[in-house]
Design goal:
single chain; mainly alpha; Dna Ligase, domain 1; 4 domains; 3-stranded antiparallel beta sheet; 10% strand
């Protein structure tokens, strides 16, 4: 009887041990394979792993948004997978993630692409360099040096003055750790994709190069926020170009001055010596005065035939323009607009 009881106890003990081990291994497998980190708000979260960051600092950042099921299991799995360093990059994690998947991503550098974007509001190479560097792991100086290098930009058929043509405003998915050269190569592919055979043929038929189209488009965009006026403004400037008339575009004068907060161009500004002053120089300036949008370049390429040579901001302050083919009509509108500026005390 005593033997039977002892045997029974041993069997129960063994079963308890097996059950405990099964539970432990099951929990280990679950946390290792399926879930040890759970987002507190049920959403995905992204993290930038910068050079020099330790594993502990990365996990501390993750724990700000994720509840860690078992820190003991995490340490055990990290040692098992020899996880001692993180690869630099941007990582977006799902709402639930197991230790194996997290370690695999961070250790192998399996990044999530970031969205790189800028708008037509970027006017200069310096602004472009700053805008790009703030979104990527690269120094703005490295970008600026390439934009300023005639030799480097020549590989893309561009010059220092036309370098911004390469960067078509849009949103692109790229790696956060992209190098400057890789960035330019990517933009080169996008540039060549936009300037397909059809657009090149259309530009050639208008006796314009791609950079001249971008330059004219940048002036058009700077004249108004009303995109419905883009084709007419483009038509007006094309008429002036073909007649060898100065463009007399105020936005180019503002670019030459370098004060983009200017609300009124005065006569003294028109006398500035600059290749960008289209009141003093015939033809287009050396390059764009902002990063022109693809849709605006298409508006230039598809500009309608008109006889407009002049335009003036509408005196009714509607934000539109009054287009004229005769100087007398234009002068009357300009005087009315000047009176409105004086009335509103805009200097």
């Amino acid at each position: 009887m005593e033997k039977t009881r002892t045997k029974y106890i041993c069997l129960l003990s063994a079963a308890a041990v097996v059950l405990a081990l099964a539970i432990w291994f099951g929990e280990q497998y679950y946390r290792y394979r399926w879930c040890n980190f759970v987002s507190r708000d049920g959403e995905k979260h992204g993290y930038y792993v910068r050079p020099g960051m330790s594993v502990d600092s990365v996990i501390a950042a993750i724990e700000a948004d994720y509840a860690l099921g078992s820190s003991l299991d995490w340490r055990l799995h990290s040692r098992y997978l020899h996880f001692y360093t993180c690869q630099v990059g941007f990582y977006r994690l799902p709402a639930r993630i197991g230790d194996k998947e997290l370690i695999r991503r961070l250790m192998l550098g399996q990044q999530t692409p970031v969205r790189l974007s800028w708008t037509h509001q970027v006017r200069t190479r310096e602004q472009l360099s700053s805008r790009l560097s703030k979104q990527l792991l690269m120094d703005s100086v490295a970008i600026a040096e390439r934009l300023d290098s005639a030799e480097y930009m020549a590989a893309y058929g561009l010059k220092r003055e036309t370098a911004v043509c390469l960067f078509l405003p849009d949103t692109y998915e790229v790696w956060w750790t992209l190098t400057p050269d890789q960035l330019f190569e990517r933009m080169g592919r996008e540039y060549r994709r936009f300037w397909n055979e059809e657009r090149l043929h259309r530009a050639d038929s208008m006796h314009l190069t791609p950079t001249e189209v971008a330059t004219l488009a940048s002036i058009v965009e700077s004249e108004t926020n009303r995109q419905q006026e883009y084709p007419l403004i483009a038509s007006l400037y094309l008429n002036r170009l073909h007649r060898r008339m100065p463009l007399q575009a105020c936005p180019t004068v503002i670019f030459a001055v370098g004060d983009f907060s200017m609300r009124r161009v005065l006569k003294r500004h028109l006398r500035i010596e600059s290749p960008y002053n289209t009141y003093r120089n015939i033809g287009l300036p050396p390059g764009p005065i902002r990063c022109a949008r693809k849709t605006t370049m298409d508006a230039v390429l598809q500009a309608p035939k008109t006889d407009y040579l002049y335009m003036c901001a509408n005196p009714d302050w509607s934000g539109t323009h009054v287009f004229s083919s005769s100087y007398s009509n234009h002068a009357a509108t300009a005087r009315a607009y000047q009176r409105e500026l004086n009335k509103r005390k805009i200097r």
